[in-house]
Amino acid sequence: MADTKREIERKYEGPPTGGDPALPDLTRVPGVSGVVDKGVADLDATYYDTADQRLAAASLTLRRRTGGDDAGWHLKLPVSEGVRDEIRAPLSDSVPHDLSALVRSRVREAELVPVVRLLSARDVRHLVDASGSLLAEVSVDRVRAERLSGGTGVAEWTEIEVELADDGDPAFLDKVEKKLRKAGLERSSSKSKLAKALSDTDGTDGTESTDNTNAAKAARKRVKPAPADRAPRTAGDHVLAYLRTQRDAIVELDPAVRRDLHDSVHSMRVATRRMRSAFRSYGKVLDRAGTDPIGEELKWLAGELGVGRDQEVLAERLTTALDGLPDALVTGPVRDRLRTWSQARGDGSRRHLIAVLDGGRYLDLLATLDGVVTDPPLLKAAAGDPSKVITKAVRKDFAKVSALVAQALDLAPGADRDLAMHEARKKAKRTRYAAEAATPALGGPAAGLLKAMKSLQSLLGDHQDSVMAREALRDLAAQAHAAGESAFTYGVLYGREERRAAAVEAAFPGEWESIRGGSGI
Q1: Backbone phi, then psi, for 158, in 5-degree steps?
Q2: Are 391 and 521 a contacting pair, CB within 8 Å?
Q3: Which tens digit of pLDDT belongs to each residue from 136-187?
Q4: How many CB atoms within 10 Å of residue 191?
Q5: Is 91 in a helix, a strand, or coil?
Q6: 482 in Cβ contact with 314 (< 8 Å)
Q7: H or E stretch covering 75
Q8: How far apart are CA 446 and CA 424, in angstroms?
Q9: What is the largest CA-CA distance in the chain?
């Protein structure tokens, strides 16, 4: 099983005038009481990527390394500047499944092959405080890079790496850097050893077959995002920029969803909804004959993602409500039953979701999304003035929201009104995304509508959550009754949810007037 380490580090190289970098006296760095020589480790790392370097293009690195105290497979995922999550797996002859799954949204069906071998002599020192606790590890790495595919080049260089100790204060790296800069060292111009190796050993050995070369070129064309060679000018430019952002989010969130990181499932689901909404809202810009089938696949993916997410939201709501009850109103093993109900559904939905991400239908969808942003089915209006084309689309969506709200307000409280309010909420969400896409082009008016639709979505969302919570409580009460347990507490919670929904409905007319007045469109 793979484990994860948060890695915060900085790399340095010698001055532009040339020469290998050398370490200054680091005992003078504030907070450092000693520099402990840990000796030299010989490291041998083989980096894997696709023939067209899809991982490198996304700043991902996958390697198999021997030597040192962390031999094994390492996958590094960027978090922010200078921060990466290193996911480790034990040594094996082939790429471990735990790691290959995390890069599948990038790699797709392509083969992972050795691209570079790095041989490093790592001279390691530990910076420690007065208590002997590790502050940072500093190493002088003498590296030899050998190209294994896509070229025959060899490169050698020396660099200094400073890695913060686990749970250390990132500000400490600034103190070390200040000392290094005084010694003439500069931040490395390459983000990683692999990036430098690929750059310095670029070239072709002439042994790659024409068929393989053509396949690599085709794959590169298929996956690489359309170049943003100019600022958006037309309506089509603005819509496509928004779609690219959502496509990129889906691809980038895939590893986080697989790792079950906080809010990752929700974020990916939102990206699918944003993209689908843009297809529908901007049907005069993109031909819906081409985008509607893609929208259906996005709806399918959002539904699969929503199985676990909806369960999380319900469980959190019910748990919070239960915690707010006086002990006298809690009868029977309510917390245990709620916990079991939540875990059983949650575990099952997670296994199902991983199977979805491993499936061919999902990979086909990713390829289709690549195609729609690189070769979009643009209509005549795509070349038009965004202030006209996009404004018209957004106003059309807002008119639909207004009609659905009016319909809901005309109905008496009950199931029909619940459904009408839910439909208005969905349309408000779509209009919110349309306004979001329109904001770079339209500015203030679109931003005003975006804020108004967020407010409406929040109000109606609370109502819909209450509807779903009451359904869950009926289910839990039935289970408790069948097991011979008291259903009293579930009834209390149900009544509170009813009152909560009634309060939303009572406030709805006035809130809508305020929201409509601040719509901006």
Answers
A1: -125, 135
A2: yes
A3: 999 999 999 999 987 778 999 999 999 999 999 999 999 999 999 999 999 9
A4: 16
A5: coil
A6: no
A7: strand 72-80
A8: 19
A9: 82
